[in-house]
Amino acid sequence: MEAIEKLLWSIAFPGFGQFSNGKFMKGIIFIFLEFLVNVQANFNEIIILSFHGNIQAAIQQTNYQWLMFYPCLYFFAMWDAYRDADDGKILYSYIPFVMMAYFVTVGLIYSSRLQIFGILLGPVWLPMIFVIPGLIVGLSIQKLIHKFRLFLS
Fold this sequence. Notes:
The protein is an all-alpha fold and 153 residues long. It is built from ten helices and two strands. It has one domain (2-152).
């Protein structure tokens, strides 16, 4: 359960899970990177505009060159906090996090054009929706690798 607590702290803010694990230098680096990418990408403004339903303005405010870094930073910080707390007991624990980062990045790439049921979701909602297939694919790959290893043993 301790690993889940660290994961949740990292979901709240990249770097907090590392602080909770006693990895202060890593925590400081993740917090610095979070602030850097957040400010350069205009992410807080994008979130506010998206929550108010102003998707076109959110798209126009988005600095995609910077925001593209965010999924990998966010999911890597989550995995790192989880792994440190878990001591690597879960084999291939990184796979779901990698797949979520990949799918969210793809969702971000298409967020200014892709519509779901005729609705343009933009750079906040569409990438968030893409977490779900990323998690499903990641857990499936992790399970397949585990079964394959057992089969070879």
